[in-house]
Sequence to fold (268 residues):
Amino acid sequence: MPSHRIEIDDPSLGTRVGRQIRDARHLVGWTQADLAARAGTTQSTISRIELGHAPELDLGVVARSLAALGYRGAFELDAPHLADRARQRDPVHARIVGMIARRLARLGWLVATEAPFGGPVPRGWIDVLGFRPSDAAGLVVEVKGDVPDAGALQRQTSLYARAAHQAAAEQGWRPEGVAVLVAVLDSGAMAARLGANRDLLGRAYPGSPGAFGAWLRDGGDAPRPTIAAVNPASRAADWLLRTSLSGRRSTPAYRDYADAAAVLRVRR
Fold:
């Protein structure tokens, strides 16, 4: 029998599973009673499954039936948007988000953190969503403690920029445009990661942290997408720091994520 992938939200799920069990049973030459004995159930249950008449699939019975027929099945749950939620529970991530939200609020921005988009089930959450009423500027901030996949980061921020208008509308905001900022932990490990992906990230995020900070404060033409380093423990006025992408040579505040987590716990 060939391999088959059946989506769990397929309305014909029961019928398709039943058909696979029936066809495999025929191939091995078993009766429904034969399969029922091997699966620890009754012939009538196998009949209902094969006909797609079972009102609810008993996954235990289905799994035993498939195993008896030689299938190696997998129950796959794919919810990439929940990775956002797990990351947002991270303490270092939360400290950076909180710092950015406070900084923006002091500059006159309206701010929402962990702003959902898509529905009725959210497709993701924007770490920091901002709106400046004075010029109807919109802002998406994606916070990163690490960037293991530069391409995934680019796809993620592109998605968030497209979704920002919907997410802003949920807050009662109507931004005329949306600027994108990636705020990364100011660590040596992050600097090395950015340097290793300089070609891709430099093209995708060509903006200057200094110019982005000036726009957040003073307005004007919207800045280009930008990556800036941040130290959540810093109280310096210039909080968007240059990275290895923008020519920084000074030593970052932390060695790596673990160092930041340890230091920030001490400073709580």
Remarks:
- Residues 150-170 form the longest helix (21 residues).
- Residues 1-8 have pLDDT under 50 and may be disordered.
